[in-house]
Amino acid sequence: MNRLEHLRAALDKLDDEHLRRIRRDIEGPCSPHVVIDGQTYTAFCSNDYLGLAGDPQLAEALIEGARQWGAGAGASHLISGHYAIQHTLEKRLAAFVGCERALVFSSGFMANMGIIPALVGRNDAIFADRLNHASLIDGMLLSRADIHRIPHLDMTALERQLAASAAKTKLIVSDSVFSMDGDVAPLRELMALAERFDAWLLIDDAHGFGVLGPQGRGAPAEAGINGWRLIQMGTLSKAAGVSGAFVAGHATVIEWLMQKARTYIFTTGSPPALAQALAASIDLIEAGNERRAHLAMLIERLKKGLVQARWKLLPSRTPIQPLIVGDNATALALGAALMKEGLWIPAIRPPTVPAGSARMRISLTAAHTAADVDRLIEAVNRLEKTL
Fold this sequence. Notes:
Elements: H1 3-16, E1 33-36, E2 39-43, H2 56-69, H3 84-97, E3 101-105, H4 108-119, E4 125-129, H5 134-143, E5 146-150, H6 155-164, E6 170-175, H7 187-196, E7 199-204, H8 219-223, E8 230-235, E9 245-249, H9 251-260, H10 262-265, H11 272-286, H12 289-305, E10 312-313, E11 320-326, H13 328-340, E12 343-344, E13 347-348, E14 358-363, H14 370-386
Helix pairs in contact: 2-11, 3-11, 4-5, 12-14
């Protein structure tokens, strides 16, 4: 068997195990109501939590940004690819989340891949929740530090591992909101442990920024934690509705990351037009209490309406509402049945989630209506009995 045949056999194996992913082409802007192959669906699979990705105000800001700043950056940020509007955005982000300084990256994955190896290396130690995002895992592996995987949200195990470590530099790493379960990390406890054991604390707030905390300032603001050892990463492609990510913290820490994060140094800068749109997005997030209140209402409506006997809705107070189905084939069948009714929720299967916990990751946004949610509730409750 040659190498090409080997790949074909491996793809066939994915099919046999119901694990092959597919991609669908959306015909229009990001919205809860999308057109795919000429058919209209109500989508419950977007991370556009505040409904800003398709907001006309952001589109106009992006257009104006392109007129003023052009289409591309032309070079890396540390050569000639950093623009005044990007500096303004970084200052705005830092002030918004209550930190001294911020640094914008091209994506959340690149941010995490750059932050961790810049902070720790060989003979250092990382303490990480087992359900952390893949970008954090890959960043940890790239660092070559000793990695200690902690059972999900087990603060006792984390304390024990920290106490037993003789590493000179320690780094605690955690999502704030876990992307496939929707639960929230105990950030105050994590901060207390970081202070007690003289560790850095990196919080990936990808799914909290814009949604949690006063005026959407994020999970660390909601928890009331701050200080020089806290480093927080937030994405700008989810609740913010545009693209990119940022890391915020003490000015000295951010300066070090700018000097040492390879995914920042060795890549062309983001288009400056995006920064203009993001500046408008932060204004909308800050003034978005009505959007967040509507989103909270939809979350409670869904949780109260889904009456499940076989399938299990995980406890979550966030827009991420995972419905555990179990095996891959059933999850795919449920997704297909919902598609026939005009409801789009892709099945989430291993390796994204543990084996045996395939699920429908229901994701709500402020752009959904109560009628959208009621339609989903009715369909899922009915299909559980008949599928």
